[in-house]
Amino acid sequence: MSQQYPDLAKDPAHKPTQNTVRIAAVQYLLRSINDWNGFENQVRFVMKAAGDYKPQFVVFPEIFTTQLLSFMDTSDLRRAVRNMNDFTSRYIDLFTELAAHWGVHIVGGSHPTITDGQLLNTAYLFTPGGKVFTQDKIHLTRWEREKWKGDPGHHLRVFDTPHGRISILICYDIEFPELARKVCEQGADIIFVPSCTDDRQGFWRVRYCCHARAIENQVYVAVTGTVGNLAVEGLGLHFGQAAIITPSDFPFARDGIAAEGVPNMEQIVIADVDLGKLISNRVNGTTIPLYDKRIDVYDNDVDVITTR
User: Which of 263, 258, 214 is nearest to 242 (CA)?
Assistant: First the structure.
């Protein structure tokens, strides 16, 4: 057994207060609005619909706050995205209130945030107790680099909650197995993937990688995306479908999908996941990839053999 991965079945610090965790993933519809109140009213409506099901976690999509651009001056897109930072305090106040009111942890999608002069794609985690945590996107897409002139984050975080250890990998970040492996080596049970993809190819890149990460690391992955369209450059088309994804083994859903939504519709996808099954499967599963790692091999150079 690799000493690089903690024995989560025995780790006293890794004991959630309950085994069954309910996740609500929001397929958020980007529709044009006239002001901040339009955004706030839609978010409150969605949270009431989700909160009535009493989930432990609610997850919104990546950069769903770009809905605010529908009433902003976007003639200079780079400037407009940076001006979204003016709404950051109101965004934080809104979701802090909602997390407390519904007694739920909210992964508030992500929001373009200026930190130390850099434009970061930042995901926010709001707790029922009023705490706010962040996770910056590590890998930026070409659009974010070239059109928005955004800046990448540099640090990964795992959040130890009463309902298991969680991590947030924003959209493109789930396509890099190194990130998921690092957070899972620190005991992540659920990886939340707020996403925003404009076409079917982009959607499936993210979705297939979510399945791969769930299998490789024996974790649950909750992914959701934006749907709808806005009359803003780069936001005119979205392809989104939320899903709660499981490892592929006997204790879980046959196809590795606990629940999934109807593509491109405003919807909330809800599923219960069992952390007890997850932890047991890591040591008793048909395969146990976390414990079967060969780090002694991974550190070796690859031999390139010429056959010509």
Answer: 263
- For residue 128, give Cα distances in angstroms to 26, 98, 132: 18, 8, 10
The reported pTM is: 0.94
At 13 the pLDDT is 55
The helix/strand/coil state of 129 is coil
Nearest to 16 by CA among 274, 282, 284: 274
**CA distances to 16, 30, 100 from 56, in Å:** 12, 25, 12
Q: Give the residue numbers marked as catalytic.
A: 62, 137, 171
In angstroms, the Cα distances linking 299 to 25, 179, 185, 293, 296 are 38, 17, 17, 12, 6
Fold adopted by 20-298: Nitrilase/N-carbamoyl-D-aminoacid amidohydrolase (3.60.110)
CA distances from 158 to 15, 155, 203, 229 (A): 15, 10, 25, 33
- For the four alpha carbons of 153, 155, 161 and 163, in that order, the dihedral sign comes to positive
Q: How far apart are CA 303 and CA 308, in angstroms?
A: 15
**Domain coordinates of the chain in residue numbers?**
20-298
Dist. CA 261–CA 61, nearest whole Å: 14
Block mean pLDDT (10 aa), the chain, length 308: 46 68 98 97 98 98 97 95 97 98 98 97 98 98 94 98 98 98 96 97 98 97 96 92 97 95 97 96 92 90 95
Using only the alpha carbons of the chain, give its radius of gyration.
Answer: 19
pLDDT at res. 147: 92
